[in-house]
Amino acid sequence: MTDLAKLDTEGVERVLAVVAHPDDMEYGAAIARRIREVRPQMAISLTWELDVGFGINHVDHRACGMALMDAIRDADNPWIFQDLGLKRWKVERALFCA
């Protein structure tokens, strides 16, 4: 059973991904847009931390974690991304893992 199929049996309704390069300025806006569209209760990503206890975390993993953390904050800020025409959304729980 694939990891995604396993999620379905555990009650996860859908898994979404934003595909973009983390250095792109539009990356954070794209993630915040998806958060506002989908309105998830929880978000999961890799951690932004450098030292993850068993070695050094890879740069792209850190960039993903930081981008999601920023987008979670931004999706709940009514003053930014007003041009999206979407109501702000607060993600209640976020999990960042190594």
Automatic annotation (TrEMBL):
InterPro entries: LmbE-like_dom_sf
Entry superkingdom: Bacteria
Protein name: GlcNAc-PI de-N-acetylase
Record lineage: Bacteria, Bacillati, Actinomycetota, Actinomycetes, Micrococcales
